[in-house]
């Protein structure tokens, strides 16, 4: 022991046993940082070994005592040392970590059950610390060691963490970390204790579902999925493997690309998804391998699942391989359950029409008795209001060629139910003049006349009576927004407020062109309603936080205040510089 060298040591209340004094390099770290890892201010609490400080004499005696009779084993001290090492990893103290690794003082692959993440490698991944990750791997950290909490290896954790990426910088860090891990992990198909290979973490919907809040987040997430999938395939991922739910990689790619929660698009495109499918095809994925579909409780081919998930781009790509389309069916359960929370109605209708045409080009024979679920969904069978909403979206956004093909296909079936609902729809469209061009008008009129002449019992259908019902103040919530706008524009904004599909239509350029006057009225009401809601929230916040009012008192304040008063208060609170309304 050398006098004059600064040491920090523990407060020795138990001087009867020898304490383990850590090497000089470690205590230099404490001296420089002025704070111990998780121990508070070491310099002020525990003193120094330089002829002064509390506990100096007792510590000196312990150090000079050569007898081992009083020495007792102290397993908790070793645990404390490892925890300090993990804390250093958490705080990014690279020099301290490296000195411990060089001295071989810690088991770099040990799991600490009292901390999460429980290994140095998982801490580096959790903190996106690529420098620490590289250092640990260099000193033989095993990427196959699992975290005690989530039971995942380093590669599993990286694949599951991609939904947290919010910037290009974070994206580059994740990709570089995966490259590092792959350099040290020879088997990329090694499963964790839950029997899941790392690649399936890329497509875990429950983990990544929040990435579909906006189109920008979804695109960044999907590009990152593709880049990582490409790296894993190059490293030797087995394309024949299945997830714990017995789903194939191809199915998961198609399903992931079909998720569009809350995202509004005029026409859904899936370029990145197609690139991922092409990657799997390059590695000779089996396009006929069936995958379990939870909703349908059975096993189906990738093409069948792509059809029933409205992924037209995937259907088109798979049909280029000339698959057997005879077993494809439009599942009523999926058509009724998924559309409302997957994508807007207009997208569903367009995708289904495109899918029908693509399957027809591949010699698919439509069986009305089995495929009527899809046609029912597009046309609507419950009442007069439900049908127009679906097809008016198609009229607003679809191409003339596709619409013609659809009507030709639908009306070629000698089905009383199908013809009746189509006749009802066409009559409303014609009566309300909800068409895009004279060419479309002539086409619809011709179809309506053909249907009307072919079935005499449809002559009793009273379109004027139906329109009169729609003019009443009690407009059904299921009424087409276009119907409402044409007949009752001042009432339409109520339906817009409660229907996300209506909102997407109102904000589209096509809506302005079709209903210019109505668009202004509805948007005016919408702006006022949104400002009113914003004012209410702002005033309540002010009342509760600044005036310590209860919820009831805040609501009374809002109820008695006028719209102008609330708007004035809200502007003052937020210090707005321009008029909101």
Describe the structure.
The chain has 581 residues and is an all-alpha fold. The chain folds into five domains: 1-72, no CATH class; 75-238, Ankyrin repeat-containing domain (Serine Threonine Protein Phosphatase 5, Tetratricopeptide repeat), CATH 1.25.40.20; 246-376, Serine Threonine Protein Phosphatase 5, Tetratricopeptide repeat (Alpha Horseshoe); 380-488, no CATH class; 515-574. The protein has helices at 24-33, 42-46, 56-64, 75-91, 94-102, 120-126, 130-138, 154-160, 168-184, 205-208, 215-235, 249-258, 271-282, 302-308, 312-319, 332-337, 339-342, 345-361, 368-379, 386-397, 400-411, 416-431, 438-454, 463-471, 481-487, 489-497, 500-506, 509-514, 516-546, 551-560, 563-574, and strands spanning 291-293, 298-300. The chain has a two-stranded antiparallel ribbon. A hairpin with a 4-residue loop joins strand 1 (291-293) and strand 2. The chain starts with 23 loop residues before the first helix and ends in a 7-residue tail after the last helix. The relative contact order is 0.04. InterPro entries: Ankyrin_rpt (IPR002110), Ankyrin_rpt-contain_sf (IPR036770). ANK repeats lie at residues 116-148. This is PRANC domain-containing protein. Keywords: ANK repeat.
Briefly summarize what is shown.
This protein has 581 residues and is mainly α.
Number of helices: 31
Radius of gyration: 34 Å
Helix content: 55-70%
- Low-confidence stretches at least 5 residues in length (pLDDT < 50)? 1-78, 259-268, 337-346, 379-399, 431-436, 454-464, 466-479, 576-581
Mean pLDDT: 64
Query: What's the end-to-end separation, in Å?
Result: 78 Å
